[in-house]
User: What shape does this take?
Amino acid sequence: MSGFIEWLDSLNKKDSKVRAILRRSLAFEPGQFVPAYPYVEPFLRNEDNFWRRETHYLVAGLWAAHWRDERWGHPMSLGEACAALQAASGSTSTERRFIALLDADAEQLPHRLRQMITLLKEFAIDFEALLKGLLYWNGDQKRTQNAWARDFYRNIDSENATETTTQKEESK
Assistant: This one.
């Protein structure tokens, strides 16, 4: 499945109450808020897999809570956005929260993601990529977690390398 965020965007253009309802759905377990059904179920149609269904509801709620207009900037992966937040804030608590998110099981994941997305309010998130990653969250090889970690540490390392190079040049 793809195009879910485009689907939500098209619904949002027709009626802005879509975002309000989907935001409200975050107060419930994913897929348990009945008013959200008209906005997610038509996209899912014949999907029987519980995890896939729950993930779509979660991402719909996160998208609605984080929604900004199209002029907002280039969407980032969750790992990139977390690295940008840590760089902007200078706080190492971002890394601790990010690691806790990567270590979350299926039960903890919705809560930890809601917290992280709230912290990332200043950064554009690629919600299609987020959905795709979450669909494979429970895989034995933890490909999503590894990909997000690579995005995070690749961006942290490039910032640290730039700082180290600048410090060396200044000390000459």
User: Anything to note?
Assistant: The first helix runs from residue 4 to 14. Residues 69 and 121 are 13 Å apart (CA to CA). The mean pLDDT is 88. The radius of gyration is 17 Å.
